[in-house]
Amino acid sequence: MSNLSLISRSKPSSRRWAATLLVLAASLASVLPTAPATAATFAAVASPPRFELSGKAGDTVRDSVEISNADAEPGNYRLFTNDWLLDPAGGPTFQDALAPNSCRPWVALERRSIVLNPNANRKIRFEVQIPPDTPAGECRFALMVEQDESTLSKAMAGNLPVPVQGRIAVIVYLRIGDAASKLRLVDVRLVNVDGQPTPVARVINEGNAHDRLDGVVGAVDGDGQKINFAVSQRPILPGETRELPFSVYLADATEKPIIKWRAPLLFKGSLEAESGLKIPLDMKLP
Fold first, then answer.
1. 124 lies in the same domain as 252
2. Domain span at residue 248?
């Protein structure tokens, strides 16, 4: 299958998880009457936090993620894959069960579990075998690192310090063939957030690969105040219409913060996508 001698494929279970791209922690409370337990933390760190890979049908794409244990105690971690979606606010929802058209069956991991001493790290290889007849598109999955359940079971029995259960997710995007995004600005409107009007761009992705917007756009408010706005960098997945709020952008810490501004806003500038697309903004809101 590959040059990896210890490759094993992740098998999904029936459990579903909701998580963020950062550590998701839930405390386990258990104190034995005869011997007090010592609390530990889930302190795994993964680098890089995201992969942007590319390949073509029939290719085997390989890379590695580095797992570090920043805790003062040894860490026992389980490694597996998940499918994921983004909610309307841009937060990811992960699931163990295979999603429709999931590409996770193509994914192989070097190991399913590792033990790391305090302040130790280890690179874990993974590969994606793209079937030869795969059309252009995007394969998306998450590499998950989780506190090993067998460690939790022993901890609850009093054999180990009681840990904090948690997990981290490393997002992987794999563009296949000539897959590309196709962003289109639907509109920009003001939405009342906490009593303050907030510009929000609606952008649709009519392509077959994800993209992100970036950039700072200048504006003048109803009092003649000059303001720079930065757009949210939430990913826009293929087929999605994503609402991207703007926030006031400060060039550095010495710049005076803008607490309040008043509509209407006169925008003039452009937004840029990671793909290189430029979307001009020359409009008055509302």
1. no
2. 183-285
